């Protein structure tokens, strides 16, 4: 099992969810986060004053998947979240050692 974690632009969330649904993804976790990458924030103008926003709003998705689904899930996220502009985000794939459904006690793939 793998945990696919993606940091994307907030307005791309619905497109990514719609891209994952046909793959059979039945659940995902979404968190509102802030961060920066190569763009190192951005300059904004508010009431005529210029200021720097160091941390940009992003959305973090976490999806637990079977090993054979990883490439399709990563490709779906990458395609749906892509704007072609700086700050599109990153996708990370981590090993997931165990998953347990609290209600039933089902473990690993059955818990997904």
Q: Can you offer a commentary on this structure?
A:
Helix 1 runs antiparallel to helix 2. The chain has one domain: 2-Layer Sandwich (Alpha-Beta Plaits). The N and C termini lie close together (10 Å). It has 2 helices and 6 strands, in the order E-H-E-E-E-E-H-E. It is elongated. The chain is α+β, with helices and mostly antiparallel strands and 112 residues long.
Order of helical and strand elements: EHEEEEHE
Lateral arrangement of strands in the main beta sheet: 2-5-1-6
CATH class: Alpha Beta
User: What helical percentage do the residues reach?
Assistant: 10-25%
Biggest pleated-sheet summary: 4 strands, antiparallel
Shape type: elongated
Distance between the termini: 10 Å
Helical stretch tally? 2
Strand tally, please? 6
The CATH architecture designation is 2-Layer Sandwich
Which residues form runs of ≥5 with pLDDT under 50? none
What portion of residues belong to β-strands?
35-45%
Enter the CATH topology name.
Answer: Alpha-Beta Plaits
Rg:
17 Å
Structurally, the number of domains stands at 1
Average predicted confidence as pLDDT: 89
Secondary structural class: alpha+beta
């Amino acid at each position: 099992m793998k945990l696919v974690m993606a940091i994307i632009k907030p307005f791309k969330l619905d497109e990514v969810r719609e891209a994952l649904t046909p793959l059979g993804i039945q659940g995902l976790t979404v968190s509102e986060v802030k961060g920066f990458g190569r763009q190192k924030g951005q300059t904004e103008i508010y009431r005529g004053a210029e200021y720097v926003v160091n941390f940009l709003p992003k959305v973090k998705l976490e999806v637990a998947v079977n090993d054979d689904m990883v490439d399709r899930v990563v490709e779906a996220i990458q395609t749906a979240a892509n704007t072609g502009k700086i700050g599109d985000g990153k996708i990370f794939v981590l090993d997931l050692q165990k998953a347990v459904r609290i209600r039933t006690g089902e473990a690993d793939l059955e818990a997904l």
